[in-house]
Write a structure and sequence with these properties.
single chain; alpha/beta; Rossmann fold; 6-stranded parallel beta sheet; 9 helices
């Protein structure tokens, strides 16, 4: 993604939200896992309010178990995978069925493994990419930081959930503005 594309506004009608591997057995080991999951849930809630398709992935569900049920309920679909890069297990095909939405907002665990490899796969496939850093987690904070730097270097935009929400809304006169604002105000501060 060139600098002009990175400066372009994010539009809900052009986006899909991909939530990578928020699995119940993995989350307790994730640095600030509760906060990471809370951000993912807010992302999914706002995406659904604004008609942004949401897909979840789960790495080796037989070994790591399913994604957290509260998140699964917010996903239109859940893709089981064995590759660290979900693109190699059908994510690109699922995205193609969503009507050609070229932009992907992504978050997940672990930031430096499955999230990173899936994001790089999406970039190789030509998708513009926004990574919601506070909704991404790794066992070690240093791995999270390195993953965000590598993704930025690969052309992804690193963003917060609120940055994404307000770009999706575009205007305070949006029909769903007040509902989104309620979710924004529910976020923990700090």
């Amino acid at each position: 993604m060139d600098s002009q594309a990175r400066a372009a506004a994010l539009r809900a009608e052009r986006c899909t939200l991909v939530l990578v591997d928020y699995q119940a057995r993995l989350l307790p080991a994730i640095h600030q896992g509760d906060q990471v999951l809370a951000e993912a849930l807010r992302l999914a809630d706002v995406a659904r309010l604004l008609d942004v398709p949401v897909i979840g992935t789960e790495q080796n569900p037989a070994g790591l178990g399913p994604i957290v049920e509260a998140l699964r309920q917010r996903c239109a679909s859940t893709l089981a995978k064995m590759h660290f890069d979900a693109c190699e297990d059908g994510l690109l095909e699922w995205l193609a069925r969503q009507g050609g939405r070229p932009d992907v907002v992504i978050a997940g665990c672990e930031a430096h493994v499955c999230l990173l490899q899936t994001a790089l796969g999406l970039r190789r496939a030509g998708h513009a990419l926004w990574v919601v850093a506070p909704a991404c987690g790794s066992r070690r904070a240093a791995d999270h930081a390195l993953a965000m730097q590598r993704l930025r270097d690969a052309g992804a935009v690193i963003a917060s959930a609120e940055m994404v929400f307000f770009e999706w809304l575009h205007d305070c006169r949006h029909a769903r503005f007040k509902e989104v604002l309620t979710l924004v105000k529910q976020a923990p501060v700090g």
